[in-house]
């Protein structure tokens, strides 16, 4: 079975340190897959490896059946993968509108429709359209980053810890919007906040010390107190 | 009054030439974090090849086109073979581009001979006219016009076009712009080539302005470009325009009123800026 | 000192040093001795540069100002006072003090900033020194320069040879000692990773400033020797070309080796004197900078350790393979 995104036995180093030892998982089309794990387990590096930002030493990554391991980031992005990094990667001196414009490879009916849809989801962005990205609040930055990744006809979104550093009420809003985007695109989500992730995830993988150690359906995990305690420190 | 005015025009014209030279350097630094000491080499190659074409064909415009073409080509070579191996290390960049600068400068002597060359503006840009008591020299006005034209062209490019936005975004966050599907290396190369072409154009215009060119101008103008970029703030496009005009005006006025110090003007300006405001006079942060 | 503990390489250097003092008995021609003196002078100058670039990773574009300070202090003192050895000693001290103060000020002001700021400020100051030398005609004679008398003993090229050779040897061993000391190890740590060294608790700025002061003083001393061998001074001792020469010497010879810059100095001086002479044969020899510039670029990219560093690496690899 060749699934939508398939990551198998990926290993990666940053400088001389092994960060990823053996990462394997797959992301089925149309679902939300969540990578869970403690701080420093290798979740962010996994996303970076998929994007081609961190070189992969061993293993394979395929997207829609094609090998994309260690391709240049822009080529991977142009295959239809959108990326929301941990720090959101907002271009601070560009306005909200300019941030969106940089992201739009084409301007046609379809992107226009996607743009309208996402702006309806995040009316704040429309309100601050001419404000520099650096002056947005944390939640607004997150919304901008997600919109920017979505606006091209990307079939897969990699979203790195969207709840990080946000107030609970804002987290809810962001999560709610990701829930709505689920209808339209496939999502690979990295999250530390289990409560949040459990609300929108279909499948989960747990990464610990650079390895995928557990996997399953999200609603099974909710029942499994032992697992939660062991890898996520939730009791 | 008329003296003040002609000094100002003088300084403005010089400033515009310096701006064209420094603009490429500051772009390259801002976008790629590259310190390019070979920039003056591109300047003299633009000057010599442009003047050669101009004197061979009699077409000043042909000279300008040649200079720009040579600038683009040398920019390609410099980025591809000189700068690309040393991305990320300032020390190595300074060393290698300085070495390349020397080679470019000596190659000028090999190709065009070691003696200086005399140049004059084309007939349709020569001459002057008088309004009131002020003398306007046509070629200087021409340079000022070209300088502003190019500044506003780039200003428009950066503000209004997606290409310009990509360049600005690339300065801020290289990884993110790649993750949005932009081939940043290609953008780098193009910016480098455009920067080199601006330097070459500056060289060609300067040749007819000062009336004489010689190979050692390469190092002199490399240094001058850096002085301006440091004063304006490394990587700051608008800053380099203001700094170039400041340097041009100061030069003009010092040469008239305090000739003893005129040689030291640039160095003094830069030393003051480095000591009191190392991020540059016109830096925002 | 236990002789058995002395490194083998030290003995090699000691032996070579003794050879240096034999040379003038063999090469008795004035012009040959003059050339070798130039090599010694620029060897010292390049070593002082290596201390900055090779050991600490600081680029200076105005190193020539220290050289020029040494040259002018000496020339002016010999011009104003009786040409005695006392004046000579005074020249060394005064130039050292000026160079020390200047490098201290520059260092404190810019060494905390990114590498290119030091390069640019030294460039600016060297430019100001050059303009100063051109404008302060009463003292310097402007761009025409002036000649001056020397103590009788220093007029003899053999004596001057001995003085320069001795200086080279002593400075070489002095700096070698310094770079092999714990202090020198910290410098290398700064070059390799400045922020890590800082986080280990070292006051990086202090180390850098001290190095720049030592380097400035040594450079000014080379300027003193240089001007003694010329017996004439003009503004060319402040020319940017000299900084570039010394940069070429250091890089081509091998950064961070001390002996490399001396070898680099020999090569460049050789090129200055003999390749330029060859221009009668073919004009291309006049443009020897192209050759050296190309070598320089290739070395920066492919052999960042220069001639000496690369040879040393090869030697160790070869020895490791044999055992």
Automatic annotation (TrEMBL), chain A:
PROSITE patterns: ABC_TRANSPORTER_1, ABC_TRANSPORTER_2. Coiled coil: none annotated. Keywords: Amino-acid transport, ATP-binding, Nucleotide-binding, Transport. GO terms for molecular function: ATP binding; ATP hydrolysis activity; branched-chain amino acid transmembrane transporter activity. InterPro entries: AAA+_ATPase, ABC_transporter-like_ATP-bd, ABC_transporter-like_CS, BCAA_Transport_ATP-bd_LivF, P-loop_NTPase. Residues 5-234 form the ABC transporter domain. SUPFAM superfamilies: P-loop containing nucleoside triphosphate hydrolases. GO terms for biological process: L-amino acid transport. SMART domains: AAA. It holds the Pfam family ABC_tran. Belongs to the ABC transporter superfamily. This is ABC transporter ATP-binding protein. It comes from Halobacillus locisalis.
UniProtKB/TrEMBL annotation, chain B:
It is a multi-pass membrane protein. This is Branched-chain amino acid ABC transporter permease. GO terms for molecular function: transmembrane transporter activity. The keyword NADP does not apply. It comes from Halobacillus locisalis. The lineage of its organism: Bacteria, Bacillati, Bacillota, Bacilli, Bacillales. The chain crosses the membrane at residues 6-27, 60-82, 134-158, 186-207, 213-234, 264-284. GO terms for cellular component: plasma membrane. The keyword Protein biosynthesis does not apply. Its main location: membrane. Belongs to the binding-protein-dependent transport system permease family. LivHM subfamily. It is found in: Cell membrane. Keywords: Amino-acid transport, Cell membrane, Membrane, Transmembrane, Transmembrane helix, Transport. It holds the Pfam family BPD_transp_2. One of its GO terms (biological process) is amino acid transport. It comes from the Bacteria.
From TrEMBL, chain C:
This is Branched-chain amino acid ABC transporter permease. It is a multi-pass membrane protein. One of its GO terms (molecular function) is branched-chain amino acid transmembrane transporter activity. It is found in: Cell membrane. InterPro entries: ABC_transp_permease, LivM-like. It holds the Pfam family BPD_transp_2. Its main location: membrane. The chain crosses the membrane at residues 12-27, 34-52, 85-109, 115-133, 158-175, 209-230, 242-268, 288-312. It comes from Halobacillus locisalis. Coiled coil: none annotated. It comes from the Bacteria. One of its GO terms (cellular component) is plasma membrane. Keywords: Cell membrane, Membrane, Transmembrane, Transmembrane helix.
């Amino acid at each position: 079975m060749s699934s939508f995104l398939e990551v198998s036995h990926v290993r990666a180093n940053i400088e001389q340190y092994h960060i990823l030892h053996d990462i394997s998982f797959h992301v089925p089309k149309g679902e939300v897959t969540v990578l869970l794990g403690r701080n420093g387990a290798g979740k962010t590096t996994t996303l970076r490896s998929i994007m081609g930002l961190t070189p992969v030493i061993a293993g394979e990554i395929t997207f829609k059946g094609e090998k994309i391991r260690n391709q240049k980031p822009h080529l991977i992005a142009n295959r239809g993968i959108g990326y929301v990094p941990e720090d959101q990667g907002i271009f601070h001196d560009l306005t909200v509108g300019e941030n969106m414009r940089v992201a739009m490879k084409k301007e046609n009916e379809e992107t226009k429709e996607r743009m309208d849809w996402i702006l309806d989801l995040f009316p704040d962005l429309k309100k601050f359209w001419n404000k520099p990205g650096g002056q947005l609040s944390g939640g607004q930055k997150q919304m901008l980053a997600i919109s920017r990744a979505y606006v091209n006809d990307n079939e897969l979104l990699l979203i790195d810890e969207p709840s990080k550093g946000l107030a609970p009420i804002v987290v809810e809003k962001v999560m709610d919007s990701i829930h709505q985007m689920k209808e339209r695109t496939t999502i690979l989500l990295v999250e530390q906040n289990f409560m949040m992730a459990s609300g929108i995830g279909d499948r989960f993988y747990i990464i610990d010390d650079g390895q995928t150690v557990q996997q399953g359906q999200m609603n099974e995990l909710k029942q499994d107190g032992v697992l939660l305690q062991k890898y996520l420190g939730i009791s | 009054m008329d003296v003040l005015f002609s000094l100002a025009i003088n300084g403005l014209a010089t400033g515009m030439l310096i701006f064209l030279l420094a603009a490429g350097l500051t772009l390259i630094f801002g976008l790629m974090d590259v310190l390019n000491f070979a920039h003056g080499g591109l300047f003299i190659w633009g000057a010599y090849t442009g003047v050669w074409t101009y004197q061979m064909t009699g077409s000043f415009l042909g000279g300008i086109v040649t200079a720009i073409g040579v600038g683009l080509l040398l920019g390609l070579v410099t980025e591809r073979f000189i700068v690309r191996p040393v991305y990320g290390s300032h020390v190595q960049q300074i060393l290698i581009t300085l070495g390349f600068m020397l080679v470019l400068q000596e190659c000028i002597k090999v190709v065009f001979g070691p003696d200086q060359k005399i140049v004059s503006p084309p007939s349709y840009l020569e001459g002057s006219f008088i309004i009131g008591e002020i003398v306007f020299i046509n070629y200087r006005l021409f340079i000022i016009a070209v300088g502003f034209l190019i500044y506003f062209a780039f200003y428009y490019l950066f503000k209004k076009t997606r290409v310009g936005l990509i360049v600005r975004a690339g300065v801020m966050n290289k990884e993110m712009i790649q993750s949005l599907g932009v081939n940043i290396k290609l953008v780098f190369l193009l910016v480098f080539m455009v920067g080199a072409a601006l330097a070459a154009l500056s060289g060609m215009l300067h040749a007819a302005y000062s009336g004489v060119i010689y190979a050692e101008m390469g190092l002199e103008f490399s240094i001058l470009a850096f002085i301006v970029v440091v004063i304006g703030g490394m990587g700051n496009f608008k800053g380099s325009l203001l700094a170039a005009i400041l340097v041009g005006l100061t030069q003009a006025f010092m040469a008239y009123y305090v000739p003893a110090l005129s040689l030291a003007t640039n160095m003094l300006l830069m030393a003051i800026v480095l000591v009191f405001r190392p991020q540059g006079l016109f830096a925002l942060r | 000192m236990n002789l058995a503990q002395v490194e083998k390489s030290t003995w090699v250097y000691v032996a070579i040093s003794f050879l240096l003092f034999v040379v003038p008995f063999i090469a008795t021609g004035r012009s040959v001795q003059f050339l070798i003196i130039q090599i010694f002078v620029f060897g010292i100058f390049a070593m002082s540069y290596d201390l900055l670039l090779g050991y600490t990773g600081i680029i200076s574009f105005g190193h020539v100002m220290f050289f020029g300070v040494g040259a002018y202090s000496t020339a002016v003192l010999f011009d104003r006072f009786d040409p005695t050895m006392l004046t000579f000693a005074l020249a060394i001290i005064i130039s050292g003090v000026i160079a020390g103060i200047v490098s201290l000020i520059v260092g404190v002001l810019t060494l905390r900033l990114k590498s290119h700021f030091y390069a640019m400020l030294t460039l600016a100051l060297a430019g100001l020194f050059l303009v100063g030398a051109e404008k302060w005609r009463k003292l310097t004679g402007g761009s025409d320069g002036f000649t001056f008398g020397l103590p009788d003993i220093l007029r003899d090229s053999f004596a001057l040879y001995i003085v320069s050779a001795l200086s080279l040897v002593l400075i070489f061993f002095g700096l070698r000692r310094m770079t092999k000391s714990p202090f020198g190890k910290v410098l290398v740590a700064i070059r390799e990773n400045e922020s890590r060294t800082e986080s280990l608790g070292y006051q990086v700025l202090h180390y850098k400033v001290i190095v720049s002061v030592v380097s400035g003083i040594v450079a000014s001393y080379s300027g003193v020797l240089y001007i003694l061998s010329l017996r004439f001074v003009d503004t060319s001792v402040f020319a940017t070309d000299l900084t570039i020469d010394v940069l070429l010497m250091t890089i081509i010879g091998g950064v961070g080796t001390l002996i490399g810059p001396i070898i680099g100095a020999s090569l460049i001086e050789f090129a200055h004197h003999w390749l330029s002479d060859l221009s009668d044969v073919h004009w291309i020899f006049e443009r020897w900078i192209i050759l050296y510039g190309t070598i320089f670029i290739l070395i920066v990219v492919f052999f960042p350790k220069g001639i000496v560093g690369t040879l040393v690496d090869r030697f160790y690899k070869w020895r490791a393979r044999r055992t």
